[in-house]
Glutamate dehydrogenase (Bifidobacterium subtile), 434 residues
Amino acid sequence: TRRDGDQPEFLQAVYEVLESIEPVLANHPEYEANGVLERLVEPERLVKFRVAWTDAAGKVQVNRGYRVQFNSAIGPYKGGLRFHPTVTESVVKFLGFEQVIKNSLTSLPMGGGKGGSDFDPKGRSDAEVMRFCQAFMTELQRHIGQFTDVPAGDINVGAREIGYLFGQYKRIRDEYSGVLTGKGLEFGGSLARTEATGYGLCYYTAEAMRVLRDDGFSGKTVAVSGSGNVAIFAIDKAQSLGATVVTASDSSGYIHDPNGIQLDVLKDIKLDHRGRIKEYADRVPGAEYHEGCNGVWNVPCDIALPCATQNELDDAAARTLVANGCTVVCEGANMPCTPGAIEVFKQSKVLYGPGKAANAGGVAVSGLEMSQNSYRVSWSFEETDARLQSIMESIVASSLAAAERYGHEHDLMIGANIAGFVKVADAMVAQGVL
Ligand code: NDP
């Protein structure tokens, strides 16, 4: 922490994990003897690079690119790329650190990494985005490979960007391999990858509610934030499990549709036209638009699924949710709830599912995409979706078992941190001090 005092998001993610795993350390003196904690919080490698490209007006633009290769104890580095003006070293490190524990929880052989750039694709043409992706990959390709580091998408990196990135990697390396996941179906992508994080979030939430509350989505009112890849497919699955989803948001504001979000309209605006959420209220009678995205948590609900970005739900929002009767909060985004919000949920006995467990479905299906690429096969949607569901259910089970073993019965956050950590720590001890 001495070295990282100016990295608030990274420290926030680290403190949460270190606090949770305290009870484990007493039983495992070998972790201290092998410096596991000190090594765990220091990335194996962090590359920072210039990305220069030419915009539509012929002006040279310079952005900063990052890749953090955090931990390779249990597999090649794996984790997404984020393109957003708020991307900093602290943000990629927090995401990379979370990814180490998350990937371990999936039970697939993947280490943790993350990357991206402060490039803002808003208002940029396809051709500009392509040129940026090509410039970004021209440097990134030196550091990645199907057996070393396999990036994927994240905020503002979807099918279009992965296609451009893959094309440039193939051109420079003259190699057709599964070096990225989230690829188009025509060139090695997996069915159900697009849906995986949102669907997985609902499978996780449904299983946790079944085990801990003997309850489920049916008949519940759900508030979702965000309107990107994760949010849209969370809304889709929650609706098909019998819930009414009444909100969605973007960074400008949120919509409240008491009759239930019309997914075809939302997809048309957000996925097909890269439009703003405000347009939904212009098209759907009875729906309201409100400026300011954080107001989304004022809408009464039984279940809240934050699916936008880090620290989007603070302690004040948590108190409002609880006062309005919300009893379940599971995170589709990475670290959307502040530590203060998590404390409110704990004290109010809210069923709280942390992102590194609840949103692990995306990387889990990315892991399945890597397997399919290696075997040179493609599984059906149903087969992949069934594997996803079973992985999410087993994450609930392993989290609850770890929590119980260390005296924190029913605590999904402590359980996820312990279950994910122990596997990585054991592998680090076995491989020696590196
Ligand atoms: P997208 O780029 O598809 O969508 C992000 C959405 O969140 C957009 O609607 C964006 O709105 C909105 N948003 C961004 N910042 C804010 C904000 N401050 N308040 C409200 N809305 C905001 O990204 P994803 O759906 O892929 O990612 C969302 C979250 O899920 C991230 O935390 C990501 O790390 C996490 N995640 C994603 C996975 C995946 O498979 N894609 C896997 C696991 C986790 P706008 O259009 O205005 O920018």
Observations:
- The mean pLDDT is 97.
- Residues 153-156, 197, 225-231, 249-252, 293, 307-309, 312, 332-334, 359, 362 surround NDP (CB under 6 Å).
- Residues 381-405 form the longest helix (25 residues).
- The chain has 16 helices and 13 strands.
